[in-house]
Amino acid sequence: MIKKYGDNFFDVIVVGSGHAGIEACLATSRMGLKTAVITINLDNMGQMSCNPAIGGLAKGHLVREIDALGGEMGKAIDKTGIQFRTLNTKKGPAVRSSRAQADMFRYKAYMKNIIESVDNLTVIQSMVDSLIVENGKAAGVTLWTGDNIYSDAVILTTGTFLRGLIHIGLFNYNAGRAGDFASNNLSLSLIENGIEIGRLKTGTTPRLDGRTIDFYDLEEQKGEDDFIPFSIADKNITNSISCHITYTNKNTHNIIANDLDKSPLYCGIIKGVGPRYCPSIEDKVVRFKDKERHQIFLERESLESVEYYPNGLSTSLPLQTQLNFLRTIKGLENVKIMRPGYAIEYDYVLPTQLKHSLETKKIEGLFLAGQINGTSGYEEAAAQGIIAGINSVMKIKNLDPLVLGRDEGYIGVLIDDLITLGTTEPYRMFTSRAEYRLLLREDNADFRLCEYGKNIGLLDEVRYSAYKDKLTKFNELKVFLETYENGKYYALLKRPDFSIDDIMPEFKKNIKKFNKDIISRVQLFVKYEGYINRQKEEISRLKKFENVKLGDNIDFNAIPGLSLEVVEKLNKIKPGTIAEASRISGITPAAVSILLMRCRN
Amino acid sequence: MSSLTYEIDTICAISSPPGEGAISIIRASGEDSINILKKIFKPYNDNFYEIKSRRLYTGRVFDFQTESYVDEAACIFIKGPGSYTGDDMFELYPHGGIFNTKYILEIILKLGARLAYNGEFTKRAYLNNKISLVKAEAILEIIKANSLRTLVIANNELNGALEKKINTIKEDYVYLLASVEALIDFPEETFETINEDFFKKAGEASLLIGDLIDSYQNYELNKHGFSVVITGAPNVGKSSILNRMTGKNRAIVSESPGTTRDYIEENLFLSNKPIKIIDTAGLRETAETLEHEGIKRSYGQIKTADSVLYVFDINDLSENEILRNILEEKREILIPIINKVDLLKDEDLNQIKKNIMKAFKFANSPIFISAKTGYGFDEMKKAVHDVILKMESMVKDDIGITTIRQKNLLVKSLNILSKAKDKFMEGQPLELISIDLKDGINALEEIIGGVTGEDVLDLLFKEFCIGK
Fold first, then answer.
1. CA–CA gap between residue B273 and residue A586 (Å, rounded)
2. A586 touches chain B (CB under 8 A)
3. Minimal Cα distance from B424: which residue of A?
4. Cα A424–A429–A430 angle (5° rounding)?
């Protein structure tokens, strides 16, 4: 029997301190549980291994949702960002997203500082070699030094570290990321415990010496000073740098095409599947032969460093080839590479083996979050981290898990997609994955989720009261517009060609006390009310299916009329409700009606 | 109560047409088929404990109530999911009497099967994912087909050609949706030709949808038969022509003008084409109210006619106001018929023909007939057939829709598409256009049977005759 006291016992162990691990361990310790976070390298907690940015399309939504639940990511980027912008301003308001360049050194210093200042949280630098599983329950971990640490729940956030293998040209080596050890034994322990593992690939760009870049002729992209901060209670942000835009050209593409025989991707050395939406530059050159140039954003990594991240140039070609093609690009004629670009292969767990709480179905008390579930991106990782953290606490406290619906947040969409569809390439969030995109806007993340954050006890009082204040003002302005001159302006605002700025002069005095954020929220609400109501109706119609439970022990083989393929998929994923079943790929409407009929019986 | 709750029990029905025949067919489908078959059927030479799928057995029909054999029959068992419905099925072939067939059906019902409702076998095939909704509709149309052409169109629906066409449109739609999503989710990328491509694809999809919508009218025409209207002045022998064409004495023939005061409709086939031939009241100014009403109806018939036979009496080839009006609208499909030529010599006919063509500018040559002797009727039928062929040649191909349900959904989809196109042009928010496009796709999917309400299904399957 394990002794449940002393220095080697915790309520929760979090393995890894990347973007998922941080949100997970902060959530559990802030919710009052004794937590240990174990990381291979204490200097790299909150490291931005790829691009130095937070947010972006659909990702900005995730950051604001994490913030509304009481997470740290939004606060961190507000304080350590060096350039802030809103994407898609020319398109519809529901798909606008916030993006910020981070000072990556300050970002990780901020995170390390927060982790070290939280109660209940023990920080350990070590490597985890295996899980301790007792009677089908996670009971702790064994470190590479042979020491055991025990807990009631374990959260794995291993990123790219599981049997990580870095490729630069035909040269490769074992690493979790450039500069860190790989974790080579933990995957085996998972396999031994019946967890199915797959292999993925991702990549990053070379880092350039900013002193060797000629910015003079390059297009400049400035930040926006009236940007609405990511975190609800934050008042302002600071723009300190600009980004610059340049392009590849025919010469760049020729050099890349000529050296494809030295590419591990094209020689078949890399077996893992890479992301289609974030292809390496060699992939882009091969697949889009007709495209004459590709856009490159030059992003500074930190105010304290001259390193630049050339966004759009992920590559695993040999170092010399990287240098050759870079020097064909305008502004980079004399560039020096400080760190080479590389590809990395790593193990992940097929996410269909998880429950919506992010607990594995096979091993009770084992939670997974981040790239280990097949996702890509800091924001996707953090979103799962906070949910895994919250739900490990719920589990220990014997409470219902927090499961967000697809109509409640991008987090809900993300997790539901992973669990019901699985993924064979690194999964990235897109706005098109959300069927209720008009409801799931960045501007109303707090309205959607703050009450959840408050109820589970994670959202602090400062953010909660900021949200309450906004909600009050929102309703106040809405009612004003609805009633002022019999709602004349409310009706006018519904027209696509009218904005609040056009009608503002009529009642400027009355709405002076509302800030830009509230005004734009109300405007959006009024403009899309019709569509929003339609989506709400659709949701309530589908909710009926959400409530039809299939039961844990249903034998799909015994249901007549289902094809073998359908039975196989249902048995593998074991959907909890009719609605979940209907979202599984390959499950036909006919199969759904048969299941429905079974449930009615 | 929802019909879906019954879906797993075993159903049966008599599948052969009602009445006496050589052999009857009784069909059953469902989990319990094999047990019921074992109880009712005793094969002559085979061991029935290991009943084989798709093998014809001969034997006797056993009535468990009287413990006696009631008929000789053949039977076949088909194991699911390889069967028509996807369930286990059997078919029993007793002798084709009315009483014995019904009695055997009753035994099967008492053994635990339930009488199938209309179209239930096909509905199960749909629910078991054996056929799509379009295919289910096609089966219904094949049963109802009344001409070679309707059969060909319905068969193209069944063999998946229509579905393929709809899927092509769906692919265009998905392309449009993908363009919109690309613009939303990748704001930092440059897509050079995306606007151009969007409008091109939207245009292509609209054309394809439009073609399919048009095809419905052609199908309806084929299904209900081409209407051939016989008209002309009173007492030129219109009713006699109808009587001779149909071989019936349907219309009252008399020497006094204005005998046919309402129209008379008869159906017949003209080289595989279903024809609705309509005899109308003669056209003239009249004071009599009853006849006046008849003339009004005649005009209505002419307006919707697919072909008009305008009948002259050879003794009166004068021009009149009424004929000029009809010619204006129906010149291409109007065939002038000169009746009562038995009263005239052959050599005069050519001269008369020339005169008529000169006077009236007909599109089709006049045809000389005698309703009394039958002279010229073959030539007249050929002329009608030619007009029909000419109309049909304007239809592009034999792949088309066959039901008003399909047409309405296509119209809905087309409207949504053109709305989305306009919004895209005006630069309205892309996420709203995306919602429209998805609605447009849903309308198409509803045709093939992607997501559809149970009531639609019930209505659709009710149209089948029992046992299919």
1. 44
2. no
3. A91
4. 110
Q: Of A402-416, A440-454, B133-147, B278-292, where does mean pLDDT reach its minimum?
A: B278-292
Amino acid at B36: I
Which residue, among B173, B194, B13, has the nearest Cα to B105 in the 3D structure?
A: B13
Q: Using 50, 70 and 90 to split pLDDT, how confident is the model at B214? A: confident
Q: Identify the architecture of domain A547-600 in CATH.
A: Orthogonal Bundle (1.10)
Cβ proximity of A413 and A406 under 8 Å: yes
What residues does each domain of chain A span? 9-200+346-455, 207-344, 461-533, 547-600
Choose from B32, B33, B184 for mutation: most chain A CBs within 10 A: B184
pLDDT tens digit sequence for A569-578: 788 778 888 8
**Cβ pairs bridging A and B (under 8 Å):** 96
CB of A593 less than 8 A from some CB of B: yes
CB-based contact B127 A563, cutoff 8 Å = no
Closest residue in chain A to residue B429, using alpha carbons only = A92
CB-nearest to B184 from A431, A531, A591 is A431
Query: Nearest Cβ partner of B190 from A87, A295, A528?
Result: A295
Chain B residues near any Cβ of chain A (below 8 Å)? 2, 4-5, 7-8, 31, 80-81, 86-87, 124, 126-129, 181, 183-190, 426, 428-432, 434-435, 449-452, 454
- Alpha carbon A353 to chain centroid, angstroms: 19
Burial class (CB within 10 angstroms; exposed 0-12, middle 13-18, buried 19+) of B132: buried
| Domains with residue ranges and CATH for chain B | 3-131 (3.30.1360.120), 140-220+403-448 (1.20.120.430), 230-392 (3.40.50.300)
- Cβ neighbours of A528 in B, within 8 Å: 432
Pairing of strands A137-143, A148-156: antiparallel
Q: Are A74 and A67 in contact (CB under 8 A)?
A: yes
Query: Pick from B80, B126, B431: which is nearest to A590 by CB?
Result: B126
pLDDT given for residue B215 in this prediction: 83
> Distance between CA B466 and CA B468 in Å, rounded?
6
Q: What is the mean pLDDT of residues A187-210?
A: 96
Asked if A547 has any chain B CB less than 8 Å from its own CB, the reply is: no
Sign of the Cα torsion A53, A58, A63, A64 reads: positive
> Largest Cα–Cα distance of chain B, in whole Å?
88
The answer to whether the Cβ–Cβ distance between A91 and B429 falls below 8 Å is: yes
| A9-200+346-455 classified as CATH 3.30.420.10 | no
Q: Which CATH class is domain A207-344?
A: mainly beta
Q: Which residue from B minimizes the CA distance to A311?
A: B188
Of A431, A589, A597, the CB nearest to B450: A589
Q: Is B250 helix (H, G, I), strand (E, B) or coil?
A: coil
ipTM: 0.78
How distant is the Cα of B160 from the closest Cα of chain A, in angstroms?
A: 18
Q: How far apart are CA B453 and CA B193, in angstroms?
A: 39
> Which of B5, B127, B450 is facing A561, going by the closest CB pair?
B127
pLDDT at B277: 85
CB atoms within 10 A of CB A501: 9
Which residues lie below 8 Å from residue B376, measured CB to CB, with a gap of 6+? B341, B367, B368, B369, B370
Return d(Cα A9, Cα A7) in angstroms, integer. Answer: 6
CB B222 within 8 Å of CB B269: no
Widest pairwise Cα distance in chain A: 75
CA B66 centroid distance within chain = 47
Cβ within 8 Å, pair B129-A563: yes
For residue B193, give Cα distances in angstroms to A291, B198, B200, B239, B418.
11, 9, 11, 66, 20
By C-alpha distance, the chain B residue nearest A596 is B4
Cα separation values, B131 from A595, B40, B121, B323, B450, Å: 18, 30, 11, 52, 12
